[in-house]
Amino acid sequence: MTHGTFELDGREVPFSPGQTILQAALAASVYIPHLCYHPEFKPHGSCKVCTVKVNGRPMSSCTTPAQEGQQVESNTPEINEARRTLVQFLFVEGNHFCPSCEQSGRCTLQATGYALGMTNPQFNPLFPNRPVDASHPDILLDFNRCILCELCVRASGEVDGKSVFALSGRGITKHLIVNAESGKLGDTELSVGDKAVEVCPVGVILRKRKGFDEPIGRRRYDIAAIDEFAAAAPKGGTP
Amino acid sequence: MTAPAKSAKKLKVATASLAGCFGCHMSLLDIDERLFDLLELVELDRSPLTDLKHCGPCDLGLLEGGLCNAENVHVLREFRRQCKTLVAVGACAITGGLPAQRNSLDVRECLQTVYLTGPSTTHARIPNDPELPLPLDRVHPLHDVVRIDYFLPGCPPSADAFWELITALIAGRTPALGHDRLRYD
Description:
The complex is a heterodimer.
Chain A: E1 4-8, E2 11-15, H1 21-27, E3 51-54, E4 57-60, E5 71-73, H2 77-93, H3 108-115, E6 139-141, H4 151-158, E7 165-168, E8 175-178, H5 195-199, E9 205-207, H6 220-223, H7 226-232
Chain B: E1 11-17, H1 23-29, H2 34-41, E2 42-44, E3 58-64, E4 67-69, H3 70-82, E5 83-89, H4 90-95, H5 107-117, E6 135-140, E7 150-152, H6 159-171
């Protein structure tokens, strides 16, 4: 049911009651870059990559309700520059060495970098020391690539009912932890079929013995850019 | 894509591999027959292809690899001094890359493991010839040390990405890497 329309980069976008700007845009096959948003989960509003200008003010489009007559700017050089800077921060805060990552070619962070025309990390990399957790027989946890989107936290709590993951600490020390006395993934109830495993947008939660199963050239974002997936998705399903 | 029109004066280009594997240079050579067009437009200064040891004044410098030791920094500074436009080429030059995977380890422990206690070690001794450049405590991308004008990502960047970069810079426009040429792996 259409409730009204707002204007997104000069285009009329319809929305239904309760939809956010991002949901309405994706439903209309308009891509707004985003990382911590996922259509199956309550919007989180933390990564700020989906920032748009609503009537001239910067807002997170994933948490801002769509309203009749809003003037929304999204695909402008100024906003994309700010989004690119946010993505560059994420790259230098972790250890994102794409050539050795199993998720390369199907990674949302990488694909968002491509979509924003990011050619370099711009800032000085921090090279944090984050040992991997290989204690689980079927799942590898590589903290180096975590962007703190909390999708695994939400999925494990809300869908799997296991609450395996949480974020701990604040600011630059914020990090992903697992719910086991030993702190090891192998001592949790996480299993391969869990939503928390499927939902990771980067290469942190990886199924073992599955890495590099798709050859270069045939991976998701080799075939099409992330904005093309959004444009092709019938009901704004997330890339 | 066609080569830009031939200009009267050839541009001077220098290339070097710092803490790299020469894979980016190999990918540059993958432009294949376009090499003939390129050599009409540019003249190589310091490069593994000329074996010149130092870089003279150049229009364009292409640097592959990150900064792993003191000599890498020395060469980088020479390139920055001599090249009007300096490009960081490939994942290692841009992010530190594979060599930077040692950044969470202590250099002393690395050297001891490789040269003293490793399982295949014979004649255990850490090399200390004064001609050997000293390793840095951490591997750095190029932009940690000098200003970089352009970045060409990829491991390696594809031949078409190289061709776009070089022809754009010769023609005096900003290189445009579309979805098919912009890759971090």
